[in-house]
Model the fold of this input.
Amino acid sequence: MKILVTGGAGFIGSHLSEALLGAGNEVWAIDDLSTGRAGNIQHLEPEDGFTFVIDTITNETLLEEAVKWSDQVYHLAAAVGVRLIVEEPIKTIETNIFGTDLVLKMANRYRKKTFIASTSEVYGKQADRTLEEGDNMVYGPTVKSRWSYACSKAVDEFLALAYYRKSCLPIVIGRLFNTVGPRQVGQYGMVLPTFVRQALLGEPITVFGDGSQTRSFCYVSDTVGAIVALMEHTEAAGEIFNIGSDEEVSIRTLAELVRKKTNSPSEIETLPYDVAYEPGFEDMQRRCPNIAKIHQTIGYRPKVDLDGILDRVIAHMREELKNEGLL
Ligand code: UDP
Done:
C-alpha cells in the first residue's frame, strides 16, 4: 500500500513510518521539522519505498499531490508539547486547525482513509476516574493558553467526524495518552526524556507542582501497533479510540524511579507551575485512559510496562548523550 504520514519525522511519526515500511508499504513522509528531527528518519532514507519531504502540510499543492498518490493517510503533524503550546499559542492553533482542515479536505477529495492523531488533552481537566471516549470535555478559561491545544484538537475531531457523517469519509480518531520512547526529546516539555536526561547528567530532576499528579505512559511500539491495527479494522471507521496504558504513576514516583534506575546522584527539585510554565498554569491531576473500547475492537493491551519503558528510554538516552559527547 502507499501511505502518507504527515509529521513523519516526529517522534511517533518516525516510528510509525518505520513500522509501515517494515510491513512492505511505500511511505511518503512530510514534516516541516518544527518539532520533528531529520535524524529521526535518517536511517529510513536509503530504504526503497521511502520518500521524505521537508515542508509544511499547509503547502496545498504538495499536500494534494501526496494525498492523491496515497492509498491511506496517517495525519500526525501537529504542534505538540505543553511548553511549545504555552510559548507558541498562534502557531499551535493555526497548525492544528488549518493543517487538519486541509488534510481532511484533500482526503475527502480523493477518498482516502485517514487516521487523525488526537490527544488525551481533549478530555481537559477531569480527574475523578479513568477517561472514556464518550466523556465530557472540561476546560479552563481561554486566557489560559494550555486549553488552546485541547480546543484545537477537539475541533480536529469535530471536523473528522463531520466528514464521516456528511461524506462517509472513512476516518479513525486516536486519542494518544503520554506516548514515550526513543527519539522523544524533552525540549517541548515532555517529562520522561527530561527526567532521564537530567538524571544521567547529574542535574536536578525538576518535578513541577507537588509531584502528586499522575500519568500513564505508553511505549511507542504499543501506540504505533494500535494505530495501524485500527486503520486495518473496518469497524473502527467513524470512531474515536483511547490509545495508551492504564498503569498509573505519580510524577514524583517517576522521578524517584528514574533516579534509582540510572544510579544518579541528582537531587529531586520541586518547581511551582507558574515558574515552570506561566502564571496561572493549570495541570491535570490525573490522566488515565479506559482502554476497554480499543481492547474490544482490536484486542489491544499494551505489551511494555513502566519498568520496561524506563529501561528502554534510559538505554536510548545514554546512547544519545554519548553521541553528543556529554557522557
Ligand atoms: N513535568 C514535570 N517536570 C518536567 C516536565 C513535566 O514535573 O520537567 C510534569 C508536568 O507538569 C505534568 C507531567 O509531568 O504534570 C507530564 O508532563 P508532560 O508535558 O510530559 O505531558 P502532559 O501529560 O502534561 O501532556
Q: What stands out?
A: The chain has two domains: 2-180+218-243, 191-215+247-287+305-323.
